[in-house]
Amino acid sequence: MRLFDCSRTPSESPLWLDNLSRGNIGAVKVLQNLFPDPGRLQFIHADLGDPKAVNRIFAENAFDAVMHFAAVAYVGESTLEPLRYYHNITANTLVVLEAMATHNVKTLIYSSTCATYGEPEKMPITEETPQFPINPYGKAKKMAEDIILDFSKLRKSDMSVMILRYFNVIGSDPEGRLGEAPPPELREHGRISGACFDAALGIIPGLKVKGTDYETADGTCVRDYIDVTDLVDAHVKALNKAERGKVGIYNVGTGRGRSVMEFVEACKKATGVDIKVDYFPRRPGDYAEVYSNPARINRELNWTAQHTELQESLRVAWTWQKKHRSGYADSGRYIF
User: Which segments constitute the NAD-dependent epimerase/dehydratase domain (predicted)?
Assistant: First the structure.
């Protein structure tokens, strides 16, 4: 799990907390090599499910803000292991908030998801769209949001809260330093981009498209794919715009929906491989069509997605994949 804190030291050094259950120390080392000055990027191997450890970390450091990214995040897996998701997402967020309250940390940037909306009746999705999540992942995230919002309403909390509801993240570091490589046991639950690349590399015999009977133009799911580079920029702008005592909730997406079929065709072109595609019944917990209206984040944070060419984002990610068939070489665990 990942927790990112900004320290009140003169260098404003970040501290990265992760239990590495789905992360990789190799990725930490990549980032530390980019910022080699002593203490510039601190890493602590700890679990948000351990309140004593979390409180000790807060007590031993002075933080201005918390960026809370930590979560297990596979829709399909959440339908098979719902309790794990409620513990990991909802309960652990409560631990973070309690530590922040105890140690008087007033700013929180929270990673949420479009899965909290479920399957809305109208598109595109705005921040006022009713939230009716249909899978444990979305439900756990909405519960965490509710807890954060309830706490922020307390006069004594005086919290600055920014909730970013991600749409479907794709892409890779354009400099080729970091990329997506889920552990083998999670490939079945993973993102479509990872499955496409696995098929292109011959790691799996072909791509499994689950659901071709949705009420969409070509029968496959429609999603809003946001490049990870744009997502990083959204977090920076959210932190810079955070104001004491105020709450901001923002959709982070391109505003354009792409079908699974469109995605597969773009991946074929990006990789140059004619990927074999097999069709299967729908996956439990999925929804037909979800894409954002990013007007609020455009207006209030001056943020607009810049990397909107699907094929180009996939080409950048494919470049990393070809060079890292086994993920990060100095560890058996993986990250994104």
Answer: 39-253
3-state secondary structure 172-215: CCCCCCCCCCCCHHHHHHCCHHHHHHHHHHCCCCCEEEECCCCC
Residue 216: partners with Cβ closer than 8 Å, 6 or more residues away: 222, 259, 288, 289
Instruction: For residue range 265-315, list pLDDT tens digits in order.
Output: 999 999 999 999 999 998 777 788 999 999 999 999 999 999 999 999 999
User: Which tokens belong to 138?
Assistant: 């979305």
In a domain, residue 328? The reply is: no
The DSSP call for residue 22 is S
Q: Is residue 333 part of a domain?
A: no
| Tokens at 288, concatenated | 């037909």
Tokens representing residue 130 in the block: 């009713």
For residue 125, give both structure tokens. 């999705």
Average pLDDT, the chain: 90
Cβ neighbour number for residue 158 with a 10 Å cutoff: 12
Residues whose CB falls within 8 Å of the CB of residue 38, separated by 6 or more in sequence, listed in order: none
Number of folded domains that form the chain: 1
What are the pLDDT digits (tens) for 95-104? 999 999 999 9
Tokens for 306, please give them: 């810049």
The CATH number covering residue 124 comes to 3.40.50.720
Burial (Cβ within 10 Å: 0-12, 13-18, ≥19) of residue 61: middle
Closest listed residue to residue 330, CA positions, set 16, 20, 25: 25
* Residues annotated catalytic, as ranges: 137
Reported as a single tens digit per residue, the pLDDT across 195-250 is: 899 999 998 899 989 899 999 999 999 999 999 999 999 999 999 999 999 999 99
CA distance 149 to 249: 10
Structural domain for 287, as ranges? 3-323
Tokens standing for residue 287: 């929804």
